[in-house]
Amino acid sequence: MCPVALEDCNKVSAAVVRYVARTNEVVVLNEDDDLGIFTGDPYFERDRPKSILCLPVFLKNIPIGVLYLENTLVTGVFTLDKLELLKLLSSHMVYVRKLEYLMKENTTIEKNEISPALIEPLTKRELQVLELIAEGLSNREIARTLQLSANTVKMHVMNIYGKLEVSRRVQAVNKAKKLKLIM
User: Fold this and answer.
1) Are domains 6-108 and 124-178 of this chain identical in fold?
2) Which of 72, 87, 96, 122 is the most buried (most CB within 10 A)?
3) 122-180: per-residue pLDDT in tens?
4) What are phi and psi of 122, to 5 degrees?
């Protein structure tokens, strides 16, 4: 599976995915439910999903993505009693993917070369944000430069931190330079 930018994917409710990524809250929606803040989302009018579950996925308590599940046949498929199991399964999926990636990397690394591996590659936009961070721009300045909202930039920064497994800008820039993601 290849990563796809949310803007390029019409198979999910982008509004739900963005909300979960921004708030780290679980969203469970059923056809009969009041959609609340998602009422205006054209996805629901166009595709008419019966049930949606979207939950944040963490690695070492760092948000790294979301799990989006949708059922187009049956209402009420995703319930709170199944939520804990899905959280557990999603965290195991992340660890398995990281392990697969590390094993693949180990087969391609030269004997004397040590290179830390990313769980998931950075998107083009995240690389742009990372380059601007390396130039010393603030989130607000990055938002103006890339014509994004400050919240969108903040989410990109958090995704970068999660993917690079760092917690500060300096760490992100240093690790990206070691990985030769930026110069």
Assistant:
1) no
2) 122
3) 889 999 999 999 999 999 999 999 999 988 999 999 989 888 888 899 999 999 998 88
4) -75, 145
Q: For residue 68, give the H/E element and its range.
A: strand 62-71
The CATH architecture to which 6-108 belongs is: 2-Layer Sandwich (3.30)
| Distance of alpha carbon 164 from alpha carbon 176, whole angstroms | 8
Indicate the pTM of the whole model.
0.54
In the chain, what are the domain boundaries? 6-108, 124-178
What is the per-residue pLDDT for 111? 41
Q: Could you give phi then psi for residue 35, rounded to 5 degrees?
A: -75, -10
Which CB contacts under 8 angstroms, 24+ apart, belong to 75-79?
75/30, 75/31, 75/32, 75/50, 75/51, 76/30, 76/51, 77/50, 77/51, 77/53, 78/28, 78/30, 78/51, 78/52, 78/53, 79/28
Helices 150-164/124-134 angle, 10° precision: 90
Per the prediction, the chain carries an average pLDDT of 83
Burial 130-141 (b: 16+ CB within 10 A, else e): bbbbbeebebee
